[in-house]
Amino acid sequence: MSQYVGSPDYAHDSTARLGVLITNLGTPDAPTAGALRRYLAEFLSDPRVVETPRWLWWLVLHGIILRIRPRRAAAAYAKVWSEEGSPLLVYSRRQARALQSALDERFPGRVRVALAMRYGTPSVASALEELRQANAQRIVVLPLYPQYSATTTASTFDAVADVLKRWRWLPQLRFVTQYHDDPGYIAALAESIRAHRTQHGAADRLLFSFHGLPKRYLLQGDPYFCQCHKTARLVAEHLELSDQDWQVVFQSRFGREEWLKPYADHTLAQLPKEGITSV
Fold this sequence. Notes:
Blueprint: E1 17-26, H1 33-44, H2 54-80, H3 87-106, E2 111-119, H4 124-133, E3 136-143, H5 150-164, E4 172-175, H6 183-200, E5 206-211, H7 215-219, H8 224-238, E6 246-251, H9 264-270
Parallel strand pairs: 1-2, 1-3, 3-4, 5-6
Helix pairs in contact: 1-2, 6-8
């Protein structure tokens, strides 16, 4: 048996399609300790995510984290879980369907959209197989991470490459690495904020809260921190905000080392002391 996956059977006059693979981070299959344990084991075993000597991290992950964190995290997931499932997966599927519908209007029958999660299901392998079966001769990989980071965007590229290196025939591949300053993206964020302010009023301070990273990743050349700040600045300019009206914070740090600052929780505790009572 060959170690490489062959091309599907199709007629020579079959339509060659463009495949669009949109990817997101991932989610457990259920808000249970068992499902969280499987998900976190896959996620936190990625060397792109945690850059620590493997032997040491294995001991920490399997000896401490996976024994304690899944049960605590399951309770938090249960609070946001819907009848349709995980909100991240539900909304990602809606995005995929909306994109497929929009592309069908412009390019009927010529584009196939597939959704993958970097960790969990649907997997990158299953989504690429869907595109392969659809005779996708070209594939655009679009991670839903506007700001590039090795922990997210590069990890997605790793997963795609791991699958494609087992294919006998390789499609043309284009990988979208970032779109943090794309005018359409900036305008969409600004319009969302503007609509919320129209309905609920403007708060004293607008916080742009991004997921955090260890500071050492920035010092080693990861552009994520800078791209987050640029996104926030461009949106603020689009909304014609003064420098005192907004600021950037980072959330969800993990462990004891220093992460990107300012921390969201520290900022929220400090703002009332400065007279800022709504954000």
